[in-house]
Design goal:
Shape: globular
Largest sheet: none
Order of helices and strands: HHHHHHHH
Distance between the termini: 21 Å
Number of helices: 8
């Protein structure tokens, strides 16, 4: 399997895992944002316009899976993608601790923006799971994913 096929298979796996996690969210009691990992990858490798379009599409996908209001996560993902695109050149992804911290903080901030909009629109309460647990689990999964030499070579974000 060459690098391109492995990247496609990994992206397909992450999308499929996001659908499975959202279908069985009540039984699993975990919520990992696999689509955000795809967004981080696209932001680190793609151009600005491509990253923004994918952030919008991934945000809308998150909206359809999680909320009844389309656009909340779309907007928060676009804001975070803009920030990611500006600071990604300064992040050392060779260190797994930086990778974890970067994903944890960016996803926490994105979820905070979305939760604030949901608070104002639907009187939704702030969720500790969305602000702490989901970014923590997503960051840990990303570190486990990129600790594999084969995946690290295929995605080549360095």
């Amino acid at each position: 399997m060459n690098k391109r096929q492995l990247r496609f298979a990994l992206g397909f796996f992450l999308v499929l895992m996001q659908i499975v996690v959202n279908l069985y969210l009540n039984e699993l009691n975990i919520n990992i944002d696999f689509l955000f990992l795809i967004l981080i990858y696209i932001s680190s490798k793609g151009n600005f316009l491509q990253a923004m379009v994918m952030a919008t599409l991934i945000g809308w996908g998150t909206d359809t899976l999680n909320t009844q209001i389309v656009g909340i996560f779309g907007f928060s993902r676009v804001v975070i993608t803009y920030a990611i695109f500006e600071i990604i050149v300064f992040i050392d992804f060779k260190r797994l601790s930086f990778t974890f911290l970067f994903i944890f903080l960016s996803l926490s901030l994105s979820n905070l923006i979305a939760n604030l909009f949901l608070l104002f629109i639907n009187n939704y309460s702030l969720s500790v799971g969305m602000l702490i647990y989901q970014p923590l689990l997503t960051g840990m999964f990303a570190v486990l994913l990129v600790s594999s030499d084969r995946v690290k070579e295929a995605i080549n974000v360095y």
